[in-house]
């Protein structure tokens, strides 16, 4: 599934996600629900910096747990960043969203990107009527 | 008469306690915070202004860009 299709599906299943930008580490935008590419790029860059700041919050005594996801709750709305491998998605929601549900939808969106598009359905093959063996009068 | 006054007082007391609890819960929800989850299952919640402020600032910028 390509990014546009995955984002379209995300908008269908999640009423809470206002905007979403899929990007790769380094800030390269893969897809966005925004029409303005510059704004999408700006969001990806800010989310990348947010991610870098968040990774610094890990306790030095912790193991090698890598960043998985974050939520920033603000009075004007929430910002989510979810990671799946090298791909990330940043999304905004209205205030007080259903956090678990939003995380689940964003993760599903990233995972759908990896899955190949479903093959087109072929028209069902016409079945030929079974051919009957011709009766022969020959007897053994 | 006296029992009526006691009942009124108790109702007023219970109402104010319930109101305070609701107000505090609502206030706690409105508080700005950052929750960071790591792959090993650990989570860090930043609520102190000095810790959370740089991340909150970036998130505000994202919300502004998102429109």
Can you give a write-up of this model?
Chain A has 140 residues and is α+β, with helices and mostly antiparallel strands. In chain A, a hairpin with a 2-residue loop joins strand 3 and strand 4 (77-84). Chain A has a 5-stranded antiparallel β-sheet, with helices on both faces. In chain A, 33% of the residues lie in helices and 24% in strands. In chain A, helix 1 (3-13) runs antiparallel to helix 3 (99-114). Chain A has a single domain (3-114), classed as Beta-Lactamase, CATH 3.30.450.30. Chain A has 3 helices and 5 strands. Chain B has 67 residues and is an alpha+beta fold. Chain B is built from 2 helices and 2 strands. Chain B has helices at residues 2-30, 49-66, and strands at 33-38, 43-46. A two-stranded antiparallel sheet of chain B has the order 1-2. In chain B, a hairpin with a 4-residue loop joins strand 1 and strand 2 (43-46). The longest helix of chain B is centred in the N-terminal third of the chain and has 29 residues, at 2-30. The N and C termini of chain B lie far apart (61 Å). Chain A binds chain B through residues 18-19, 34, 39, 42-43, 46-47, 49-50, 53-54, 57-59, 62-77, 79, 90, 92, 96, 99, and chain B through 29-42, 44, 46, 51, 54-56, 58-63, 65-67. Strand 3 (67-74) of chain A pairs antiparallel with strand 1 (33-38) of chain B, so a sheet runs across the interface.
Short description:
Chain A is an alpha+beta fold.
Distinctive features:
heterodimer, A: 140 residues, alpha+beta, Beta-Lactamase, five-stranded antiparallel sheet, 3 helices, B: 67 residues, 2 domains, two-stranded antiparallel sheet, 2 strands, 70% helix
Walk me through the topology.
The complex is a heterodimer of chains A (140) and B (67).
Chain A: H1 3-13, E1 19-24, E2 29-32, H2 37-55, E3 67-74, E4 77-84, E5 87-93, H3 99-114
Antiparallel strand pairs in A: 1-2, 1-5, 3-4, 4-5
Helix pairs in contact in A: 1-3
Chain B: H1 2-30, E1 33-38, E2 43-46, H2 49-66
